[in-house]
Design goal:
8 strands, Rossmann fold, alpha/beta, 17 helices
């Protein structure tokens, strides 16, 4: 196998990891390796289930009241997106067991995968109970925080990706809105018609592959992968026959696939886990690689020319268009949208939100500056809150990322509140 094909294979494996623990540290704070190892759940990355932690909110300028919300949310916690991966892992281990190549620990792990395959059969990508509760909680806090918007008769326009987990997330959110205010006028729908802005472009995968095949990315990423992914201890824990492993097991692929399946269990509702199989160092090391992959694929990485942010161009354009309509016509109080991590992450980069647009070419130090689990956990969300005053003509807005205030790359004497006219102008020029 050539070096290029090996790197392509690594990239394919990492793409499998397409995120309980509260987001304890502030979004913009640097994360140390010690912190992640102490809160080892963070190594689940984009599989980390969303968990709200109250944070301080800046009071709006005098006289300004909220009147409109524009929202984009990732679906909540789900079952692993591939329905065959548990089965594949079980059969790989069963084949080794038939050859008497497993340790007693390996047999135990094999039986867990068999149980998982049985319990999660035909549930691939389905929203879990955790996912339902995440969106109910976000909806409840949204109404509690902005009662001026969610009042009797308010019109709420809701759109979802055609993915079942997104539709179910939308449904959970709307159910809670109706509980909070039964006389809201909610219109919710899902259609292919809205997919051009609710999801990443259909050719996004091709664009990512082209950039990742460029030596500017593939060389430093391949070197990072080689430094951090070391499967020998885990493999020896599960397999008793070194010759069998050499002839039959791609140990790097095995570890990477196992890491993804282990991480996905945080979002599922069964009692099965593999905490006893991994060391904290192994989980941390695999997360370092996974974090870098997301940074290069959908984040603001200069090694991939920071081009992935424009995957969200249609979404941001729609946000601007609908906000302008709501401001002018006053006929809608909220636009709520439900999609995916591949929509949310590019949007945060394109908007240049604090803590999300850091650029570095040093993948080893990336963990100190940018962490995908803070941006795109299961249930991650962005909220644009709009304010107006009876005495002032200027509309103001602020942004919440995962229900925390963030700043924009725009000058403002009232940050985190910004003049909508200036925000709109900045992003329209950026997207030309």
């Amino acid at each position: 196998m050539t070096k290029k094909s090996k790197l392509a294979k690594i990239g394919a494996l990492l793409s499998l990891g397409c995120f309980a623990l509260s987001l304890i540290s502030p979004l913009v704070a640097q994360t140390t390796p010690e912190y992640v190892k102490e809160h080892i759940e963070c190594t689940a990355g984009n599989y980390l289930p969303y968990s709200y932690q109250k944070s301080e909110r800046t009071k709006a300028p005098k006289g300004y009241k909220p009147f409109y919300i524009s929202h984009y949310g990732r679906h909540g916690s789900r079952f692993h997106y591939s329905g065959t991966d548990y089965e594949k892992m079980y059969h790989l281990l069963r084949k080794a067991d038939s050859a008497k190549a497993l340790t007693p620990k390996g047999v135990e792990v094999m039986n867990r995968f068999k149980q998982m395959d049985k319990e999660f059969h035909d549930r691939a990508g389905d929203l879990t109970k955790k996912g339902v509760e995440q969106h109910k909680g976000i909806a409840e806090r949204m109404v509690d925080g902005f009662p001026e918007i969610f009042k009797k008769g308010s019109f709420i326009d809701v759109k979802s990706s055609t993915s079942t987990r997104c539709i179910m997330s939308m449904d959970a959110f709307c159910q809670q809105l109706r509980i909070m205010e039964p006389e809201l006028n909610i219109q919710n729908e899902s259609s292919k018609r809205w997919m051009y802005y609710l999801a990443a472009p259909s050719d996004a995968g091709k664009d990512i592959a082209e950039r990742q095949n460029d030596p500017a990315w593939s060389v430093p990423f391949g070197e990072l992968h080689a430094r951090y992914v070391h499967p020998s201890r885990m493999v020896s824990q599960l397999f008793s026959d070194a010759d069998y492993v050499k002839d039959n097991i791609d140990t790097i692929a095995f570890m990477r696939e196992f890491y993804v399946l282990h991480s996905s269990l945080l979002s599922e509702n069964g009692g099965i886990h593999f905490d006893d199989v991994w060391t904290k160092e192994e989980l941390y090391d695999n997360w370092v690689v996974q974090n870098a992959w997301w940074y290069g694929a959908y984040g603001p990485c200069p090694l991939t020319k920071n081009e992935s942010r424009f995957f969200a161009k249609n979404l941001l354009s729609k946000i601007i268009e609908e906000a302008d309509g709501a401001i002018a016509k006053r006929d809608v109080q909220a636009h709520l949208r439900f999609g995916h991590d591949t929509g949310l992450l590019p949007l945060t980069s394109l908007m240049g939100l604090s803590g999300c647009n850091t650029q570095t070419s040093n993948l080893d130090s990336l963990v100190y500056h940018w962490n995908e689990f803070k941006i795109i956990p299961m249930g991650g969300n962005i909220q644009l809150i709009f304010y107006r005053s009876k005495k002032e003509t200027e509309v103001l807005m602020k942004v919440l990322l995962n229900e925390r205030e963030v700043t924009l790359p725009i000058e403002s004497e009232t940050a985190p509140y910004y003049k909508w006219s200036e925000v709109k102008r900045y992003y329209e020029e950026l997207m030309r």
